[in-house]
């Protein structure tokens, strides 16, 4: 039974929500301290996927997640892959359920913690604390993985827990499949094989839900309708077969660090466009409508720069586009790391035998990561410094995605956020990448709804990552209300 719409916009009595949903939200609020305690438990497991040292911990974090889903009534198993295991869970949905079969995706692996000296508390000893003087926001959980992505996956699980508790039905009778992987932060390398292997089960889903993105700001929840793709490479430039005395050999033979720097410096033209021939060929340009929609969000890019210690002069990027357009709708090239020669204490006069750089590209529709990587390697080859030799590594890649904004599932997500937070979500894109979304679209034709509750000052991937409790609560409530909307489909 639908309860009458009372006090529109109020957080306690949101519009269009069932009586059961009201009880679910109340239960979740009472349960919140226990829910945060569970999050802290999970965050203590150092599931760094890129470093083989943590292999056992990654598996432990996956098992932890599977156990939680079982508690909520899901059938859940930890599936082995050539890399880290994947949690695959499902619930049948009640016989009268008429809504979509939703595939929930998340990841339980985390980024490395270095530089570890910059953490104010150890990355895997989570603390709950208030804001420090000068910090915005409220109480927060500080730990690696707090918002990316354990905290956000747990928002979903806790919503499931509440529906099970109050209705006795797993997921309140909604049909879900969950795929929670342990390799997202290292390029989701086993995922494609896994999706192929489980094509029947995953292909039976109607839409994908991912909680691994952010809001527009603390007070503006959002649905992300697109993320960028990625092509990640490593290039090594080799010269002599040994390190050399820079006095005896300097000026007589190539210095691979100097030569690499000279090549990399050519990667952008004067307009800060990527200089690789054909790089922009497949780029779908930002439509007039999109430009207008984004402008209407009134995002303050100068304020965002200020928060990370930069002046307005730092608003640089491809000429002719605003900061938001550059992040959401344009491709980029980045040097993520560069290494070579002597970097220890004091001075050493040396010409190194080789130098390397990690170079990645953020892609937009319809750029193909494989083609971009190939074009980049060819571009390097065409510029091989005299006497030097390249070695190329293709780490990983994925397509960008854009989700149609007019689907019934999107409307349900939007109504859920409105009911849970009192605010209609903004429609935003993100410059980040979530490789699975492109894969699911490509292989199974699934569109993804990104319903995330992070903030741009959450320090994702960097020291002192945090997730604010108020954001976590909005996320838990929104996921619970999403279930409420789905239960009403066809009623
Ligand atoms: N959750 C992030 C991506 C993200 C963050 C999207 C905030 C939108 C808003 C994800 O875990 C991530 O870090 N992805 C990597 C993917 C890469 C390793 C292929 C990224 O974007 O760098
Ligand atoms: Mn993530
Ligand atoms: Mn991440």
Map the helices and strands:
Blueprint: H1 19-43, H2 55-71, E1 75-79, E2 86-91, E3 102-107, E4 127-129, E5 140-142, H3 146-167, E6 176-181, H4 191-197, H5 199-203, E7 207-210, E8 222-227, E9 229-238, E10 244-245, H6 246-249, H7 256-264, H8 288-296, H9 301-307, H10 323-329, E11 332-340, E12 350-351, E13 354-363, H11 369-381, E14 389-398, E15 401-402, H12 408-421, E16 426-430, H13 435-444, E17 448-450, E18 466-468, H14 469-488
Bound molecules: ligand BES and manganese (II) ion (2 copies).
Number of helices: 14
Overall geometry comes to globular
* Derived structural class: alpha+beta
Kindly report the spatial arrangement of strands forming the biggest sheet.
Answer: 1-2-6-3-7-17
Low-confidence stretches: 1-13
CA-atom Rg in angstroms: 24 Å
Average residue pLDDT: 95
Q: DSSP strand (E) fraction? A: 15-25%
Q: Work out the number of β strands.
A: 18
Proportion of residues in helical segments:
25-40%
- Main pleated-sheet profile: 6 strands, mixed
Report on the architecture of this protein:
By secondary structure, this protein is an alpha+beta fold. 34% of the residues lie in helices and 19% in strands. The chain has 14 helices and 18 strands. A 6-stranded mixed sheet has the order 1-2-6-3-7-17, with helices on both faces. A 4-stranded antiparallel sheet has the order 11-13-9-14. It has a 3-stranded antiparallel sheet with strand order 4-5-18. Strand 1 and strand 2 form a beta hairpin. It is globular and about 80 Å long. Mean pLDDT is 95; it is low at 1-13. One manganese (II) ion (MN) binds next to helix 3.
């Amino acid at each position: 039974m639908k309860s009458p719409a009372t006090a529109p916009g109020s957080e306690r009595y949101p519009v269009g929500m069932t009586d059961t949903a009201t009880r679910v939200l109340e239960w979740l609020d009472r349960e919140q301290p226990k829910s945060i305690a569970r999050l802290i438990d999970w965050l203590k497991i150092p599931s760094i996927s890129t470093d083989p040292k943590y292999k056992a911990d990654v598996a432990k974090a996956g098992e932890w997640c599977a156990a939680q889903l079982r508690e909520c009534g899901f059938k859940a198993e930890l599936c082995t892959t050539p890399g880290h295991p994947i949690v695959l869970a499902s619930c049948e949905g009640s016989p009268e359920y008429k809504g979509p079969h939703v595939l929930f995706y998340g990841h339980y692996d985390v980024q490395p913690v270095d530089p570890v000296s910059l953490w104010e508390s150890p990355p895997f000893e989570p603390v709950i604390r208030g804001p420090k003087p000068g910090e915005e926001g409220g109480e927060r959980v500080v730990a690696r993985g707090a918002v990316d992505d354990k905290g956000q996956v747990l928002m979903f699980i806790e919503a499931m827990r509440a529906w099970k508790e109050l209705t006795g039905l797993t997921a309140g009778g909604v049909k879900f499949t969950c795929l929670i992987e342990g390799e997202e932060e290292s390029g989701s390398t086993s995922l494609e094989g896994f999706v192929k292997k489980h094509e029947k089960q995953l292909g039976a889903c109607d839409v994908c839900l991912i909680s691994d993105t952010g809001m527009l700001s603390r007070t503006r929840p959002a649905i992300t309708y697109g993320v960028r793709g990625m092509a990640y490479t490593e290039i090594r430039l080799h010269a002599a077969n040994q390190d050399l005395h820079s006095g005896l050999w300097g000026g007589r033979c190539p210095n691979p660090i100097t030569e690499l720097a000279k090549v990399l410096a050519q990667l952008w033209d004067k307009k800060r466009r990527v200089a690789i021939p054909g790089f922009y060929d497949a780029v779908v340009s930002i439509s007039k409508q999109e430009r207008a929609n984004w402008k209407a969000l009134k995002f303050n890019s100068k304020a965002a720069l200020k928060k990370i210690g930069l002046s307005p002069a730092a608003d640089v990027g491809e000429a002719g586009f605003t900061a938001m357009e550059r992040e959401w709708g344009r491709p980029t090239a980045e040097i993520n790391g560069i290494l070579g020669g002597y970097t220890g204490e004091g001075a050493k006069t040396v010409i190194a035998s080789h130098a390397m750089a990690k170079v990645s590209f953020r892609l937009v529709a319809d750029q193909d990561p494989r083609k971009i990587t190939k074009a980049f390697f060819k571009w390097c080859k065409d510029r091989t410094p005299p006497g030097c030799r390249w070695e190329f590594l293709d780490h990983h890649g994925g397509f960008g995605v854009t989700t149609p904004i007019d689907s019934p599932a999107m409307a349900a997500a939007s109504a859920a956020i409105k009911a849970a937070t009192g605010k209609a979500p903004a429609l935003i894109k993100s410059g980040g990448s979530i490789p699975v979304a492109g894969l699911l679209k490509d292989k199974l034709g699934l569109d993804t709804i990104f319903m995330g509750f992070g903030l741009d000052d959450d320090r994702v991937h960097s020291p002192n990552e945090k997730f604010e409790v108020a954001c976590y609560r909005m996320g838990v409530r929104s996921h619970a209300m999403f279930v409420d909307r789905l239960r009403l489909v066809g009623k």
